[in-house]
Amino acid sequence: MKKSRGFTLIEVLVALTIMAVIAVLSWRGIDGMLRAQDATRRYTDEVLATQAGLAQWRTDLDAMMTWPAAAADSPTAQPPPALQRSLAWDGHTLRITRTAAGDAAAGLRVVAWTRRSTGGQWQRWQSAPVLSQAAWASAWDAAAAWGQGGDAATGALPGGAQAVTVAAALDWQLHYFRQNAWTHPLSSGAPSGADTRVLPDGVRLFLTLAPGQPLAGPLVIDWVRPDFVGGS
Asked: Are strands 217-224 and 162-178 parallel, antiparallel or unpaired?
């Protein structure tokens, strides 16, 4: 009968060392997969958040309120204030009067878009629903003050207003489409025969997103009024 022979201490230590190396390598692989999954999820969330902000831009314009306008006394007279209540751009902040939840019976909201000069955050502000002329005027003025307020904090604001940061942007500009031509809203070179007192048929957004984000670089987004008919 041959005597059975077991493992020596050196063999056991070698085996344990190999198993330890395999365990470490396996853990590193799993950890790397988890990190990659987490980075992919963050990237996807940031892309979806930016896309949601751009979709909100179109939604605000689609729901823009068209106010009844009184005729001016003469062609050279200043436009009635009612024509400036739906859409107002001062070169820095765009204010929009829109229906709440797409239903005028639910009231109106005043929405403002701006880019902060410090930090470069492209932000959106909206008022609580308003049901009276006085409440609308207060919200309209509050939107202008917010747009000029420098680095006002986002989040919950007095009066039920809310502000959120959509993305970091290096620059943004707007063009209006009137009489089959794109022009800067504040330029004096309006197309021949164009009435700058009426709402534009389209709005073109030039947005340069800052680097370091999932979406970066220049974007051009065109919005066309839902009831626009070519050649009008």
From this structure: unpaired
